[in-house]
Structures are given as structure tokens and as C-alpha cells.
Write a structure and sequence with these properties.
This protein has six helices and three strands, in the order αβααααββα. By secondary structure, it is mainly alpha-helical.
Amino acid sequence: MKKILLTLCIIAGVSFATQAQKFATVDMGYIMKNIPAFESANEQLNQVSKKWQSEIDAKMKEVQQLYKNYQTELVFMSDEMKVKREEEIIGKEKAAQELKHKYFGPNGELFKKRESLIKPIQDEVYEAIEELSKSKGLDFIFDKSSAMSAIFVSPKLDISDEVLKKLGYSK
């Protein structure tokens, strides 16, 4: 009787072990640092960013100089000249802010440049990770360099469609 019970426990344990999910981690920072194309793209982004920032700084310096001149000449100006100068200063400051937004805004030139240079490299890395996960039978891969976020989850573990169906949004 003990042998049968022991055998059943072993079979149950083995079947439970085969159901366990397999996990792995990657260090995306390490991977990216070891891809020469990524380092080159990063350097290009840094150079263009510095160039654009110096252009914005020059415009802001011009605004500051105009404002200083305005303050020193204020007592000699008529009301009409004051308004004209103030509008000129405000216009140049607004232009500098628009340029900053154009270059560094959420959908600015830097974002677009980063998308064109770095995204293809990241996509290639993610494809390699996905292929590895499939060949090794991994269910989760965590990026240990970014607060352990899942960068690949096996589609068989994705219950998104079931959740949508339960909420009444079935396909």
C-alpha cells in the first residue's frame, strides 16, 4: 500500500513539475552596449541633441539680451515703443519655445530620429529573444536592467481575449 501511495505521489509531483512555467532574464542594457550599431546610433543622437540645444540656447540668450536692453531703455521709450518692444521679445521667446518643442517635444525631431535609428535595433533584439524563448520553451523573459518588466510572454499564457469576452467585448 505504501509503495502504491509513494508511486502516486511521485507521478503527481512529476506531472506538476511538467506544468511549471519556465522563466528567464535578460539584461537589455548589457545587450545594447554590446551592439556596435546601437552605440553608433546613440552617439548620433547625442550629437544632434547637443546641436539643437545650442541653437535653442542661442535664441534664448538673444531673448535675454533683448529684455536687458528693454529694461535699460525703458525710461526713454514712449508707450507705443514699449508695447512694440514687448511684443518683439514675447514673439522671439515664443519662437524659441516652439523650436524647443519641435526638436524635443513628445513627437519632436529627436523622438523621430531615435525611432529611425534605435527602434530597428531593438526590434531585432526582441525577435532574437522571442526565437530563443520558443526554442527553449520559455514562458516569461524578464529584463533585469529595467525593474523586471516582462518583455516577452508566451502567447499560450495570454488570457486577454478571455478577459475581453468576459467583459462583453468578444471578437
